Amino acid sequence: MYIWALRPISRIGIMIIKKIRMKISIITPTLNCGKLIRKTINAVFLQESVEIEQIVIDGKSTDDTLSVLNEYEKKCTYLKVISESDEGLYDAMNKGIKMATGDIIGILNAGDFYADRNVLKDISIIFREPKVESVYGDLVYIKEDDTDNIVRFWKSGQFQKEKFYKGWMPPHPTFFVRKSVYEKYGFFNTDLKISADYELILRFLLKYGVASTYIPRVLVYMPVGGVSNASFSNRLKANKEDKQAWKLNELKPKFYTTIWKPLSKIKQFFLKYRDAK
User: How many whole angstroms separate alpha carbon 118 and alpha carbon 98?
Assistant: First the structure.
């Protein structure tokens, strides 16, 4: 639980914590995201009191994405940009994770941005507890052209393995993981084109029991229009890949698990962010 950080600790404990330096690597895959990438880069730039690096893996954009990134590279020493052909979104993420030098890995897609300046600081504080292997929080979907217009509020809730069988998963943009977990249990499965994030979280949390902590607050704002929800046909493909994710991990879902997964999101359209803070 998140509240462990509020417990009184000894003077020696405080001294030990101060000496612990947690570096967070943020991986951002891009492809022709010139209209979106500036907001994402700024969101990382504004983070306070934490050591960071941001690795942008670009799939050889043909718009102004690279010129925007080059502009930021000149003033952000922690920013690394790689532009080369890849095999898609999850391949780009894997490249970034393997390049990362941080203790903690987070994924922030182009257009997504952090809720405030303290998100990564709060994440780093929780990871000072050695037993914590992953952290996640809540997410808000917004309209791309109107960031004050909230479309959906994804309130994750505390982690329980049983929830996976009811279609639950934490929002991937809020999911931070120790790099050692990726090295031990593997990276994104690039055979899956839509549900590789679901498969990875299923593998980490349900199959291998990676210890996870929930932060009960919004961490990320995300413009609507994810790949899996872009069309009805994509939703069908996602449902098929969701089933495959369970099979790949030799796990047996309930007969309703993958059907309930998209249906469980309906309530996100009615849950008001202002009432759930």
Answer: 26
**What's phi and psi for 80, nearest 5 deg?**
-120, 130
Q: Give the start-to-end residue ranges of the domains of the chain.
A: 10-117, 131-169+184-277
**DSSP 8-state secondary structure symbol assigned to residue 176:** E
Distance CA 142, CA 152 (A): 7
Three-state SS at 47 = coil
Is the CATH number 3.40.50.2000 carried by domain 10-117?
no
pLDDT tens for 136-183 read: 999 999 998 888 888 999 999 999 999 999 999 999 999 999 999 999
Task: Give the closest residue to 82 by CA, choosing from 63, 59, 50.
Answer: 59
Please count the other Cβ atoms lying within 10 Å of the Cβ belonging to residue 23: 16
pTM of the predicted model as reported, rounded to 2 decimal places: 0.88
In sequence order, which residues have a C-beta less than 8 Å from that of residue 201 and are 6 or more positions away?
169, 170, 172, 175
| Distance between CA atoms of residues 243 and 247, nearest Å | 7
The answer for residues whose C-beta is within 8 angstroms of residue 217's C-beta and 6 or more apart is 115, 137, 138, 277
